[in-house]
Amino acid sequence: MITKRRLLEGGAAAFATSLFAPGAWSQPKPAAAEAAWPTKPVRILVGFPAGASPDLAARAIAEPLAKILRQPVTVENKPGSSGNLVADQVAKATDDHTIGALINGNLTIAKLLNPAIPFDPEKDFAPVGMVGTAPLVLAVSGNAPGKTPADLLLWARNLGTGGKYGTPGVGTVGHLGMELLKSRAAITAQHKPYTGNPQVIAGLLGGEIQLALLPPGLALPHLKSGKLKAIGVTSPERSPLASELPTIRDADVRGADLEIWTALAAPAGMNKNAVAKLSAALSEVTSMPDVAQALLKTGWQAQPGTPEALARRMRADTARLGGVIIMKGIHSEA
Fold first, then answer.
1. Strands laid side by side in the 164-167 sheet
2. pTM metric for this prediction
């Protein structure tokens, strides 16, 4: 039987299948002296303030990238619109030396959440490669009864529609991930948006909400103090970022695997040989033990890979979270 839900999820999957398929990107422009690239400093634009997670990831790779490329690599912060402001600037860059350190939302679901976004992930970017990934922690109030993931999950289910979960805002990965998880775990708690994760944690500690998906770095201090408890992380396997925590699969929740990530992307029109050279350099950098350790300290697990691997991740996340957006009718103005 074909249900409305399957039709909606199928629509999102069809949309995602067209992304990053052969020929889906703009044809790269010819470039003179392509073997000499880069011929000037490379700019990595970050759509978040200095000290934010994507900024820390970009700065961890900038210096080693510069050594390989033999040109300075600068990181420029241009906060705004959840990183979409920078994504638009990268999409429109024409100098072959401007790229972006972009997050999941910029490279996958931005257009689904807000059709007015002036760039299109389907055709305006050339994937370079992944920088780092991180799971989210499904955290609950410290006074929730029970100790095992199964016990805490049962408590979350029994909250019913009177329960509340917090996120940094409508359309964020925390929001969409929680709606995905609710559909897989029979949780019916209602959404309460905040302005950021610190406010979400304050809401959990103060009893305004009962559960949330949080970055490990923010959740762990409160888990260790006992003020919060964890059902598990959303990665398929245990994460080195929170090795002591089980996965939500350990609580028998299937189909809700989710990670946040930061990746490098170039304009679709950037010379393909330059993109290939940059991608090879990035993969070499993220394979360096000292860089992997630096990323781990800033809350990221290094993910060496290829443009094709990034494209597959983009396609998979668009299908998974796009189905949630369509099914729940979620829209964002960011």
1. 190-193, 164-167, 211-214, 137-141, 228-233
2. 0.85
| Total count of domains within the chain | 2
- Can you tell me the distance from the alpha carbon of 251 to that of 150, in angstroms, rounded to the nearest whole number? 5
Same domain, 112 and 40: yes
What integer is the mean pLDDT of 269-280? 97
* Pairing label, strands 137-141, 42-46: unpaired
Same domain, 127 and 13: yes
* Maximum mean pLDDT: which of 47-51, 196-200, 290-294: 290-294
pLDDT for 208 beyond 70: yes
What type of residue is 244?
E
Do 191 and 312 lie in one domain? The reply is: no
Strand-pair partners of 164: 190
Domain of 61 in residue numbering reads as 4-18+34-134+259-328
Largest CA distance in the chain: 66
Model confidence at 296, pLDDT cuts 50, 70, 90, reads very high
State how far the Cα of 4 lies from the Cα of 9, in Å rounded to an integer. Answer: 9
The CATH number that applies at residue 231 is 3.40.190.10
For residue 25, pLDDT beyond 80: no
Three-state secondary structure string covering the chain: CCCHHHHHHHHHHHHHHHCCCCCCCCCCCCCCCHHHCCCCCEEEEECCCCCCHHHHHHHHHHHHHHHHHCCCEEEEECCCHHHHHHHHHHHHCCCCCEEEEEEHHHHCCHHHHCCCCCCCCCCCEEEEEEEEEEECEEEEECCCCCCCHHHHHHHHHHCHHHCEEEECCCCCHHHHHHHHHHHHHCCCCEEEECCCHHHHHHHHHHCCCCEEEECHHHHHHHHHHCCEEEEEECCCCCCHHHCCCCEHHHHCCCCCCCEEEEEEEEECCCCHHHHHHHHHHHHHHHCCHHHHHHHHHCCCEECCCCHHHHHHHHHHHHHHHHHHHHHHCCCCCC
